[in-house]
Amino acid sequence: MKILLLTQYFLPEVGASQTRLYETAQALRRCGLDVEVFTSMPSYPQGKIFADYKGCFFKKEQVNGINVYRIWSYASNDLSIGKRLFSYSSFTGLAVTAFTAVKPRPDLLFVESPPLTLGVTGYLLSRVWKCPWILNLGDLWPDSIFALGAMDKESMAGKSLLKLESFLYKRASGITAVTEGMLSDLRHKKAVPDEKLFYLPNGANVEMFHPAQDFHKQKQKKFIYAGRIGRAHGAEIIAKAAALTKHRRDICYEMVGDGPELPDLKRLISDLEIDNLTLLDPVPLSQMPQKLENAYAALVTLKDLSLFKGTRPAKMMSPLAAGLPIVYSGAGEGADIVEDTCTGLVTPPEDEKAFAEAIIWLADHPEEASNMGKRGREYAEKYLDWNVLIKKWLQDVQEQIILS
């Protein structure tokens, strides 16, 4: 059986969706499937095509055993909705060339959203190839765009996206969601029938990440944030917490990532005269185990938006697998996991004082921090292993779609 993953973003780009799709592809290969990827030239998150791919319109390569087809698309990391939609639509249009590039045709098409517009290409290709297609929702578009204020729901563009969403949900052979909250919204708010819904939560590579030995005995306790620095994440709370903990010379912060809010974050760090926070460029997935191995705890932050009540951030999965306790600023599924499993501390979203107090408490209680990390590793081994998650998802898809 051959599966084609259609996505605008993939390795060597660094990001949550890129990592999730790569791990999905590798886990599917371990299930004995032939997996290929059709994507764009890498440009995320800087919005500039990587040097090794500049000047290419089409390129085929292998990424750790996976055949990857790449097509040029307009690259932009501009926050304006116009440029972002143009970037999405350029790939949406050009991705139809997969019909001539991918031989033989796939038995199943797996289409990543966002961007939701890529579902149009998935629908057209499925008609031409006469194969079923699954719309994989890493985020609920256009709800998230409306919630962040990037687009007015009543605008022409907003109404058009809502119509597109409804069209694609009706035409897709199946729809995959990454959280239980999203599944609930799809059932009750979007009226998607149960037989179309599949659950594939974010997982962790438990073989790649290993708990550090005696990390709780560190004299300099590093609290690390690794991931996108975007509007939804509210990462500025880390800078504010760093300012509130300046007096603690045993506490330091490291933020590994990039994104559209990074310039504002740098200005905030300068204004607050913070000297205990280091900003680093994103690193490949292969380097993340070492980053986490040298940390004391992980930081996960989200804005105070009702949309995120059904969010389970991908950036919390690797720290759990690495045996790190988590300080979580936010609410929803991710916060519930941390609280229910006693794998860290949860504070209200956008409350820098409570966030700083939780960080200080964790730094002052190394034995409890160590126990939280151990429970996190146990949880990851039992519930987050990509191999287990993908095998269960594949069985459900084969029963509902392939064999029905």
Write a structural description:
By secondary structure, the chain is of the alpha/beta class. The chain has two domains: 2-203 and 385-402, Glycogen Phosphorylase B (Rossmann fold); 215-383, Rossmann fold (3-Layer(aba) Sandwich). 40% of the residues lie in helices and 18% in strands. It contains 15 helices and 14 strands. It has helices spanning 16-30, 81-94, 98-101, 118-129, 143-147, 156-171, 180-188, 236-244, 262-271, 288-293, 317-321, 333-341, 352-364, 366-384, 386-402, and strands spanning 2-6, 34-40, 58-63, 66-71, 108-113, 133-137, 174-177, 197-199, 221-226, 251-256, 277-280, 297-301, 326-329, 344-347. The strands form two sheets. The protein has an eight-stranded mixed beta sheet, with helices on both faces. Strand 12 (297-301), helix 11 and strand 13 (326-329) form a beta-alpha-beta unit. Helix 2 (81-94) runs parallel beside helix 4 and helix 8 (236-244) crosses helix 13. The chain is globular, with a radius of gyration of 21 Å. The mean pLDDT is 91.
Quick gist of this model?
By secondary structure, the protein is an alpha/beta fold.
Number of strands: 14
Query: What's the structural domain tally?
Result: 2
What percentage of amino acids are in beta strands?
15-25%
CATH first level of the largest domain: which class?
Alpha Beta
Number of helices: 15
| Helical residues, percent | 40-55%
List the helices and strands and how they pair.
Layout: E1 2-6, H1 16-30, E2 34-40, E3 58-63, E4 66-71, H2 81-94, H3 98-101, E5 108-113, H4 118-129, E6 133-137, H5 143-147, H6 156-171, E7 174-177, H7 180-188, E8 197-199, E9 221-226, H8 236-244, E10 251-256, H9 262-271, E11 277-280, H10 288-293, E12 297-301, H11 317-321, E13 326-329, H12 333-341, E14 344-347, H13 352-364, H14 366-384, H15 386-402
Parallel strand pairs: 1-2, 1-5, 2-4, 5-6, 6-7, 7-8, 9-10, 9-12, 10-11, 12-13, 13-14
Antiparallel strand pairs: 3-4
